[in-house]
Amino acid sequence: MSSSPPPASAPARSGRMSRRGSGNGPQPYDFRRPIKLSREHVRMLQIAFETYGRNAGTLLTTRLRANCNVNLLSVDQVTYDEFINQLSNPTVVAQVSVEPLPGSMLLEMPMVSTMAAIDHMLGGPGGPQPERPLTDVETPLLEDLLKRLLGELRYGFDRLVDISPKLGPIEYNPQFVRTQSPGDAVVVAQFEMKIGDIESTASLCLPFNTILPVLQTEAHAAELTPAERAALDRVRRNLSASLASAPIDVAVRFRGIRMRTDDIIKLVPGDVVPLGHPVALPLAVTVNDATFAHAVPGNQGARLACLVVPPPSKESPA
């Protein structure tokens, strides 16, 4: 008689996303989402989020008058559905507009940290608090705290793009938040948040299509070292020299005509096809069907040749 399989071990923190690449073995690859953030793009985001985390920790310490820390854990690319399904319920999910960028960002803060922060702002000692809906007095305190945190986000992204985050609606059930389609790619930054003795994992979610153009522009505008600039100039000179000496096919053409398919099939050696090219009109000098000069036919010794002439004026006979 076979024994039943052992129960799966419970995750260390319910409703939280695990860091990618922390386990051993192969990682799944979704061919529906082949576009991935490059290592350079991830590093740029890490710098921005680390700056935000340090400033956010300082802000919380000053505002709550308690020892607070916000440290970046990971930056991952997932689908919107994966992000929402990994959030606990209830939790604070605030929609944030990030003008001038399109789309909306999500700022998620666990209820355990939210209630501890509000208790500190009301003069309490913090510590474990009941998870319940906020009162009419507590809601403005939360909104003011989130607006201050968004101000630090603007400073964190200052080197990438000048954004103006604005707080939007706040939801407590993640399933009610639908700013993206379930399969849309998003970039999720997870933070270890400590407010006094309370520890939790907060997160920021940005639409992939919103942040990718910013990263690509910043990567092209990155400051180069003198050695990198010299290498780039050397490559450009070599490329220009190679292109200047590359052979290409050049054609000198008469004006084209249109013929019926059956007339072309009936052609035999000796037939004469009138081209309709005016004698006074120069021929077109083309490369890959693009006309770049005009010429008149002639010869140089025993070889056919052409003489490049100015382009015909608009008054030339058609």
Poorly predicted runs are 1-23
Would you identify the CATH H-level superfamily of the largest domain? CheC-like
Shape: elongated
What structural category do the secondary elements indicate? alpha+beta
Looking at the structure, the CATH topology of the largest domain is: Chemotaxis protein chec
Arithmetic mean pLDDT: 82
The string of secondary-structure elements, in order, is HEHEEHHEEEHHEHEEE
Largest sheet: 6 strands, antiparallel
Helix content: 25-40%
The number of helical runs is 7
Instruction: Report strand order across the widest sheet.
Output: 1-5-6-3-2-4
What is the strand content? 25-35%
Q: What separation lies between the terminal Cα atoms?
A: 96 Å
What is the rounded Rg? 33 Å
Tally of discrete structural domains: 2
Tell me what the structure shows:
It comes from Pilimelia terevasa. Residues 1-34 are annotated as: Disordered. Belongs to the FliM family. The protein has 318 residues and is an alpha+beta fold. It has two domains: 39-220, Chemotaxis protein chec; 251-309, Roll (Surface presentation of antigens (SPOA)), CATH 2.30.330. The protein has seven helices and ten strands. The strands form two sheets. It has a six-stranded antiparallel sheet. A four-stranded antiparallel sheet has the order 7-8-9-10, with no helix packed on it. Strand 8 and strand 9 (290-300) form a beta hairpin. The longest helix has 26 residues, at 39-64. It is elongated and about 105 Å long. The model is unreliable at 1-23 (pLDDT under 50).
